[in-house]
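A common beginner's mistake is to predict each chain separately and then try to dock the pieces by hand. The better habit, illustrated here, is to supply every component at once so that their relative placement is modeled jointly.
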Amino acid sequence: MTGLELVLASALRLSVPLLFAALGEWIAERAGALNVSLEGMMLAAAFGGYVGAVATGSSALGLLCAAATGLSVALAQSGMSYRLTVDANVVGLTLNVLVLGLTSYLPAPTEPVDVPHLTVPGLSALPVVGGALFDQPWPAYLLLGLAPALWWVGYRTRWGLELRACGDGPRAADASGVDVPRRRRQAVLVCGAFAGLGGGYLAVAEVGLFNPNMTAGRGYLVLAAVIFGGWTLRGTLAGCLLFGAADAMRLALPALGYQFNPQLLLATPYLLALLTMTVLARRGHGPAALGVPFRRGLT
Amino acid sequence: MTDRVARMRPAVPARLVTPLAYLASFTVTMTAVALLVELTGHSAAEVALTLYQGSFADLLSLGRVLDEATALLLVATGAVVCARAGMFNIGQEGQLVIGALAGAFVALRVPAPGWLAPVLTLGAAAAGGALWAGVAAALHYWRRVNVVIGTLLLIFLASQLVSFALNRDWLLQEATPAGQNRLPQSAVLPAAAHLPRWGRYPGIEVGAGALLAIGIAAATVVLLARSQWGFRLRLLGLNPVAARRSGVRAGLVGGGALLISGGCAGLAGGVVLAGDVHRMQGGIANNLGWEGLLVALVARHHPAAVVPVAVLFGALRAGAGFLASTGVPRYLVSVLTALIVIASTLPAAFAELRLRRRPGRSRS
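With all components supplied together, the output reads:
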């Protein structure tokens, strides 16, 4: 394997959990729900998915457990902030602390799990990109179906239109008969399931073990990716790939004999997200009501 | 029939509803934690006893609690000021490490006579934290960048900046003799820059930082309630439109609140650095920023209520260190902390839900 091939393969491998979670966070942010608890959803799902995979002996059931665990964190988030009216950021931060504490406190099994790779015959032997694109653990290929499906749901269905209306102009959406808190709850739940898949993929397919705090800020990285992508699905996914590549370079460059400033590489995603926001925020990109709680009758 | 009428009448007097709701909420929380402890094969009573022994049982532990509570109190006081102005700063963890970094830099590089050294160190720490929050404030008022997102992203930049400084010997990394492993930490601060501490080993130790934190908290209580600035700040937080109409400059008052909040977090970093750790390390924040924010939330943004809550959370942090020695993972305290926060927010949220469902009844 050449150095480039190695970096590419590892970039894609590191991006996959981010891509799953980013799909969910994108839909939640389009509905105006800034999900700080994404980190907690991913971490809880990593734990739940791994325990599920060990208990059932099946990686598919493990991923299903992961999605369910992510969903349950999302249920707490959506119930507290969009049914009750506790500030969504407060709930998110608290859930992150709770999940970090719980997953580190509860005893986890230590037996490694393995997920079969799906190797596309012929194509995986291609130079440079073959290993990266056509030889991944099978759940990674779910993205090929899920991403277009989510795009279609978000941009081509009534539900998606109403959902984006809740993020862009909740008052107008409410006036035209959309139940804003309900749409936001649904968006957060969808986000929880996707974040769950991402966290589960990380533990079950990528690492094969659960370590305390194994997501290590990936949820926040995904938040940055959605911002970096200017709240478009394409941009968000590109952001995830870019951030995965930055992470891969940080790991691979020293091994290949290049010296590069690791702190700068680690800081790049957040720096890029901040820069994107300074450029885009004023031009009206992105959901106007992102992170603004909605209450009927209040202006 | 009479039965139904009786049920419609409120069962408890109105003034007891709120305290009872909080009592119920905390009872459920404590029961849940006790169940969790028992289900994982430990003894809840033993955990409670250990937490008590590690915090309030003797004067030595009490000193430890005060140390932890000091930083939490500073962070939380800043968070309250900010939240009252209607800004939600969640980047205290980053502002705290930048404050400690700035403090360490000044303490190690700027020679100062005895009494001036700690003052300069703390001043630099506060300025560093304020600067870091100021970036978010500037982005908000200049480019309308969401404060929550801005302060959140800046946390991660801060930790990389600190890591950068601690791995460069021309910046802050400690000079070590050749052949020894180089650690990502600064040299020990000169003794002149250490904050004074009173009391000695078997008794209680009180650092100057604790007095400073109490002083700032008291000043905040008075200024928020009594001063013109406090009035403008609260007006801005409660109704930005009315505030603008009556001449409150949002950028000045709101941005100022964000700076104060960052300054307090930075000061907390400086106090931890100069009063306790005495050298800059990557893990110096140790979640103090996040937990200080939670303290402000549990105190429901009342500057006076912050003090007892900070002591409670300080006791939990001090007790957590003790807990690990009994074989119960210390992460239990994180679970407890998070559940306390949830328990403290739910009663008000349910009250609001009841109000929303019965709009005819007035707020009382």
